[in-house]
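Q: For a teaching session next week I want to show students how multiple molecules come together into a single three-dimensional assembly. I've collected the sequence lines for a complex. Could you give me the predicted structure tokens for the whole thing so I can convert them for display?
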Amino acid sequence: MTKIKTFADLTKMRNDLQQTQALVDMADSSESVIQIKVGMGTSGIASGAKAVMDFLIEALEKRNIEAIVTQTGDMGYSYAEPTIEVKKPGKEPVVFGYVNLLKADEIIEKYIKRSETVEGIIPVNYHTIDN
Amino acid sequence: MTKYKQIRIALNNCGVIDPENIEEYIARDGYMSLGKCLTEMTPQDVVKEIKDSGLRGRGGGGFPTGLKWEIASKNKADQKYVVCNADEGDPGAFMDRSVLEGDPHAVLEAMAICGYAIGASKGLVYIRAEYPLAIKRLKIAIDQAREFGLLGKNIFDKNFDFDVELRYGAGAFVCGEETSLIHSMEGLRGEPTIKPPFPAEKGYLDKPTNVNNVETFASIPIIIRKGASWFNKIGTEKSKGTKVFALAGKINNVGLIEVPMGTTLREVIFEIGGGIQGGKKFKAVQTGGPSGGCLTEKHLDTPIDFDNLIAAGSMMGSGGMIVMDEDNCMVSVAKFFLDFTVEESCGKCSPCRIGNKRLHELLERITKGQGTMDDLVRLRNMSNVIKDTSLCGLGQTSPNPVLSTLDNFYHEYVAHVKDHKCPAGECKDLMKYFIIADNCVGCTACARVCPVGAITGEKKEAHFINSETCIKCGACIERCKFDAIIIQ
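A: Of course. Below is the structure for the complete assembly, covering every listed component.
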């Protein structure tokens, strides 16, 4: 049984997915949650991204912080691997480079818990297709 | 669009979505372009849109993609094929790998769009087995797309069938050339054949076949979504859109970037790339891999596009950029690339098989200080013959690193030949280690660390290095606390 039979099905599925995502992104909805993406291309994995991802999942659960940790592809900053992107509800996502386990711990304790700045932020340096 | 130097089109979703979750791709308008093509456009419309966009093949040659599609669409056959060339083989290049690892669905969607445009129902991705993660994610993506009904029979209820399979390559460089690639997929030796017939006429299993590179495909869904007129506003007159480059070598920000065509090398290397490691001096940048050439200081302000790079004696290639600093010997660089070409030549035609080998031997002689001025003339002549007479793109471009270094760094070649010196200090055979007697206190530290016993001398007296025995390992220099040992 295929899920998408017509173009209308796809459009509806996209709209639904975008709505759900918007709720997660928003600052004050019941669905909102911290989202972390770990760059898991070959260069990220070679620099230890897998261990960082495992650590993040475990540490966030232990410290009772509700968050979704997912993998993503290469963010392009090979010189600063492993890289992770942290998006707090209602805020712009922030990309951190050189994230080893220590750094990951610091990001949780300082940036996620207390919104303090942490070194190693890679500023946005590109346009997307929409801006 | 001027705030940043980069625009991410082919890398749109790379590092943004979870490549193993089709829903994240759909949430970012994934497969909407395929839907738009199937419901609102005729195949001719799609071809026209791609032609109007000015997109040129990102694998290296820069052939207009729309024209390629048009030729394939006009050839009549009961079965046609869409092939994705994922046989990325340039040393230092990892654009295609990153796209496949980060956004596999974009490639699948584009292949389906191409299938619709040219009338093909089968797609094949030719990918090197050295890319296990890309293969894994592509497989997951294909399974998910089938499950969601985005690949398979009667897609969007529009009577259009399209499915994709993988074909693995063993990583031969020549298999990036489309006729070799097709032979390899057919189970034959990966060797090129003369074109024409072009694959668009007689390709995989003798059927019309359209071969495009990963990055070319990755740009297609965005072009359909945003329109040709959006895409062709980016870039230069003859090269539209953006290009992904893999920055490697002695540059601070090693990584993937995507810039509009027409960006200068200076912007790429010094602004986006963050300059040269260790504050050293920029010497050259090699673009186009083993088929390209070295560009120097004087080319830094050249806007990068297909034609300008060729005019400067290099080429776009697939987008590897290897940056070199003052410590790189350009003769050694040329030798490194020739090493690669000699290894990767399939051996079918003699100019490439024998010619490159002889070029390599000449370079070997020069880096050993045994070259003559006649050798330099011979290098250039032979390079030109190989370029003119080789069967496929590999041989036709393999002397480029030699020619461009001869053009731009002739004085380095001459220094190797006449003075028996390597100005960059990279060619070991031309180096000599000396002890400055005045600085040497006779501590014997160097003599004790020398693995071959080349250093002799009495305690508290100046030591001496026997250059016949010395293997130039540098251990003595590291150990000496008095800066008494120098290299000449």
